[in-house]
Amino acid sequence: MLHKTHIILLTILTVVLVSCEKEFLETQPTDAIAATDALSSAENMDLLLNGLHRQMYAQNPLPGTTSSRSGQSYYMPSFDVIAGNLIHSSPGNGWMTADLQWLAHTNANTTTVDNLWYERYHFVFTANSIINTVAEGNLTIDADLNNILGQSYAYRAWAYHQLVTTFAKGYLIGSPSTDLGVPLVLDAGVPYTSEARSVVEDVYTQIEEDIDLAIGYFEDASGPDNKSNISIDAAYGIKARIALSKGDWQTAADAAVLARENYPLLDEVDWLSGFNSVDLSEVIWGGTVIDTETNFFQSYFYFIGSTFNGSQTRTNPKIIRSDIYDQIPDTDYRAKAWLPLAPNTNSSASNGQGGSYLTDPNYDNEDDFWDAWEAIITEYGMTTAHNTHPYISMKFLQENPGSIDPDDVIYMRSSEMYLIEAEAKAMLSDISGAQTALSILGEARDSAYDVTLFNTQEALLDEIKFQRRVELWGEGFSYLDQIRWDEGIDQSNSGASEVLYGDGFFQERPSVNDEWIWKIPQAEINANPNIGEAQQN
Questions:
Q1: Maximum Cα–Cα distance across the chain
Q2: DSSP classification of residue 374
Q3: Short-list 156, 261, 255, 159, CA closest to 213
Q4: Which helix (H) or strand (E) segment is 80 a member of?
Q5: Which domain holds residue 334?
Q6: CB neighbours of residue 369 within 10 Å
Q7: Does residue 238 sit within a domain?
Q8: Which residues pair with 338 in a beta bridge?
Q9: pLDDT tens-digit readout, 9-51
Q10: Residues sharing a CB contact under 8 Å with residue 450, sequence separation 6 or more, in sequence order
Q11: Dihedral Cα 314, 320, 325, 330, nearest 10 deg
């Protein structure tokens, strides 16, 4: 397809990451097999898939990319930062500053756009290699191979959905039959032929075909090794996300119900435990991270967790929008996941109120100010070098706080599926159906929840938006949410600093503002003869 992709494809056929089965990975390093053997058996294809499982969170860069943007570990918080739902309290060490200022995804030469593009196409081409090799008919189709095919088609659908929802105009706000999407490449081997950008509608058609094929294969497949593997439940969850993004409301609702069936909602203790383990009952899909294959200072918890012992978290506590938090009822235990009265101990805080009780309006004497800080440090296991800030997040906590130890990364939870069903049914004007789905989640979180207060489509949608911004905070959904809802960004009452945020402080809604569409990497423009400057976003 292009120069960098040729390198990536040669790599996936010669370097295969070992199995993601946890007990094996705990003791084994990365391994390799010969290129001629990589696709010769179901077992070796499984190794290729395990490389994708690891690439979802891994630090080690693909050829042509850099470790500074490490899979979902980086992009999940980045999507929430760009959309203004996850607030940086100071410049910190500079990580994601360009993202929040809208200087990264709008620049064709940044690592942010470069890595998202090439990493996702790495998933596509790995899946292609497996799918097309099996299609040649030299392997016996059994339950294990059906599982491999199910995961391959699901990964290809997931990757193309990630690409088309960032590098093209949103389906619901654009003209999908004519808007340029991304190149569709379904070939099997290297070197790949370059392709032009397919229209958005055609990309979605391929995505929907792939996820339906995945589900079909899973129905006759062996079970997944663990939650790092895509299961039939995760495939239904991906299908629900795809349908939601294009306004196929009934499909979204139906798939969401199927995805969540085996994953009971968390209770208060587990919800407040830190979201650091895929063993939590709600987790449908997540990365089982092990200490020999971690990200360290490009890990998810480095960017999102307040207890991680890294300069990004110590100097730049992440906070929830104050205007969102202040709507959480006292009877909702999720309010405990953020600390609105945490002292502002960082003298470099962007709101200009940090470093002392003299500048922090919540305190009027030094003893109370530092006693409050010490209580937080002690309770959550942070180091004495960690700063705190009003509305600091304690949603994401390490299993071993104050360290740089790795923790699992969660990609999909059943609570998201309840919210997808509720939104889809609200859009179908099924008020009672939306209320039923919403009430299950709301009553699990808030002892006084009363869904009957939301008895019109408008009221329901407002409540669903609020619930998504609280329940899914930091999990990477708000960027696509804003596009689907056609809502702009206004940080005026959020707690964000206009000086720090710059262009990211205010943005018009996506339907009238093409800055929401990510630039195609300049390296792709330069290398792909079918995509010229005229096709740049």
A1: 76
A2: H
A3: 156
A4: helix 71-82
A5: 306-395
A6: 20
A7: no
A8: 393
A9: 444 443 443 333 333 223 233 334 555 577 888 899 999 999 8
A10: none
A11: -40
